[in-house]
Structure formats: structure tokens, C-alpha cells
């Protein structure tokens, strides 16, 4: 049976995260779930080469202290009386998120898309895209816009589930239907098939 007892909210303290914080707060309160905010510090191998070891260590310490302060401010500003666990981790953001969600048996990951242009996504990849691909639990994301928009805070009235014909579609549909029932919302199911003039290598890509 689906459940939402643990919610993971990866944050980079950007405007996009601020805009969806109210939605995260609303869902956590609705399901009385334990909420964890996770920030990943990833400087990459080039940074290690560019700085001597002692300077690199000092840089990482400063980054951690700055992130810890930002986390405390973010929690206080957006979550008020809700009990929230704030964590700072080192490593590639997508991998850190997926590993934590798996090890801690997280029920739902909530994170915004950042709305970067296509060229920048090609260079650095999409953290949200990687999490969507690798996570074992459902992932809630916001609308992909170049300019951040404020997400709805619920109660939600319409739940849209986009599913393919793969083996994972059935549990996905059941999970989305369960969410809809919990919110007394209208449930809509969408399946997209490739157009006759499809030119993308990833057929059916929206």
C-alpha cells in the first residue's frame, strides 16, 4: 500500500526552491510526514586540481559553514513550526539525493526543475532528470520554466499521471490514484504515443 511517511526536499537555496517550499510544507503537513532538507556540496575534480590540498580543505570547510547557515535560514523562513531535518552532504548532487533516498527508504522526493537553457543542461546535465531516472521512489517536480513560478500549495484538485507501457506503469498509476483519493482530487491518466513524423531519437519524447 502506498504511503508518505518520509519526504526528501533537495535544496540549493535558489529562487526555484523558495517558490516550491510552500508546496513541500503543505504536503508534509497533510500526510504528517517526516521532512528532510538535503543540500549537496560538490566542487568537482577541477577544483581539487586548481587548489593546493590545504587551500582545498579550507575551501570545503568554508563552503560547509556557508551551507549550514543558509540551511538554518531557509528552514526558519519557509517551514515555521514544522519539524525539519536539515542535512549537508558532499558529492555529486544527483547521486547524493538518490543514495540518501534509497538508504533512508524515502517515500517521496520533492524538488523543482531549475529551468536552465538546453545548452547549459547539455553541459552540466539535469540533476532533476538524473533523480527522476535513478530514484526508486516517486518524484514530485515543479513546472519547468525559465522563470520560477510559485507552485500551488494544495489541497490539490487535479492529479495528472503520465505513464508509458512499461512494467513500472502499474505501480505508478496505483500510487498516483492513491494520492488523488487522499486529496479527493480528479485523477487523469495520460499515455503519449510517437507522432508519425517523430524525428527525436527518444521516440515519444515530450
Instruction: Write down the Rg.
Output: 19 Å
Q: What's the total helix number?
A: 7
Which sheet architecture does the biggest sheet show? 5 strands, parallel
Structural class: alpha/beta
Strand order in the largest sheet: 3-2-1-4-5
Within CATH, the superfamily of the largest domain carries the name: HUPs
CATH topology of the largest domain: Rossmann fold
Helix fraction, binned, reads: 40-55%
- Proportion of beta-strand residues: 15-25%
Low-confidence stretches: 119-124
How far apart the termini lie comes to 30 Å
Structure characterization notes:
About 3% of the residues have low confidence. It is built from seven helices and seven strands, in the order E-H-E-H-H-E-H-E-H-H-E-E-H-E. The chain is 45% helix and 18% strand. By secondary structure, the chain is of the alpha/beta class. The relative contact order is 0.16. The protein folds into two domains: 147 residues, Rossmann fold; 52 residues, no CATH class. It starts with 5 loop residues before the first strand and ends in a 16-residue tail after the last strand. Strand 1, helix 1 and strand 2 form a beta-alpha-beta unit. The strands form two sheets. A five-stranded parallel sheet has the order 3-2-1-4-5, sandwiched between helices. Strands 6-7 form a two-stranded parallel ribbon.
